[in-house]
Amino acid sequence: MKRLVLTSPAKVNLFLEILQKRTDGYHEICTVMQTIDLCDTLSFEHSSGSGNTSISSEGFTIPTGPENLVCRALDLIRKKFSIRDGVHIHIQKRIPVGAGLGGGSSNAAAALRGANVLWDLGLSYDELQDIGANIGADVPFLLKGGTSCCRGIGEQIEPLIFDGTLHYLLINPRFQSLTAEIYSGVKLPLTTKRRDPKVMIRALLHKDAAEIACALFNRLEEPAFEKKEELLGIKGTIHRCGALGTVLSGSGPTVFGVVESKEKAKQLKIEFEKCFCKEVFSIICSTHKGQTHREGSEL
């Protein structure tokens, strides 16, 4: 029997512009994403012959049936390579669900990496990316993580050079956003008013937290704040309590603030919790460098 343990990092969107709506219903985007060290842990236990995927979890509640993206990822691998072996995956959930942090997509990416090892498939990163693009827009980026500028629906990935460390305070208001609903409320800008990612990319090259904070942008903030005014209050409170800059991640509802250091993040957390009376998840995290090697162990 083989066992494998992999980490599955969350992501934040430092920049997100919507370019146009496609005929297939998706939106063309340009986004700068970065993985953070808020991670789920997936423990794989391989068994021969059963041909099934079973999931158990602890932490945040998630579906454990075929609607889970982990099951979808493994089903695609099984069909593509005629694999009959079964696997049980236990997920320690630390990433809030439906939060704009890519938790489900990251779990699916980890499942693809895990299957590649458990079933000795020998797939390259590019081959895994092609499979991942059929599961979710963020999955190709989250297979490797780090910091990248992504285009198309997110599958066109341009890795960015960023060897610094950013520190964040994430505030999640304990409810989920419906991604399709938020995207449906986007007011597409005129071409001349679209934001360009070059300002953010340049700030990342300079590794200057204040410059990066000034370049934060998310076109989805307007429809998200219209749906849930509380999110605007969270953003304003983070800013007043000392963040260098704040922005919604993805389609929300998580809002995060950028600070100079982990110590500043701890102070910001204390100040925010004094000022904001509603119950939220407040999470301190930093940059995750991405998957540079195969994690875990085989027994």
Structural write-up:
The protein is 32% helix and 29% strand. The strands form 2 sheets. Strands 1, 2, 3, 4, 5, 6 and 8 form a 7-stranded mixed sheet that branches. A 4-stranded antiparallel sheet has the order 9-10-7-11. The chain has 10 helices and 11 strands. It has 299 residues and is of the alpha+beta class.
Number of alpha- plus pi-helical segments: 10
Structural class label: alpha+beta
H/E series: EEEHEHHHEEEHHHEHHEEHE
Q: In the residues, how many domains can be counted?
A: 2
Biggest beta sheet summary: 7 strands, mixed
Give the rounded overall mean pLDDT.
Answer: 92
Detail the poorly predicted runs: 292-299
CATH architecture of the largest domain: 2-Layer Sandwich
Question: How much strand?
Answer: 25-35%
Radius of gyration using CA atoms only = 19 Å
Could you give a quick summary of the protein structure above?
The chain is an alpha+beta fold. The chain contains ten helices and eleven strands. Strands 1, 2, 3, 4, 5, 6 and 8 form a seven-stranded mixed sheet that branches.
How are the SSEs ordered, and which strands pair?
Elements lengths: L2 E19 L5 E21 L5 E7 L9 H13 L4 E8 L9 H16 L6 H8 L6 H6 L2 E6 L3 E4 L7 E6 L6 H6 L13 H9 L2 H6 L2 E2 L2 H7 L1 H12 L4 E4 L6 E5 L2 H14 L5 E6 L13
Helix pairs in contact: 1-2, 8-9
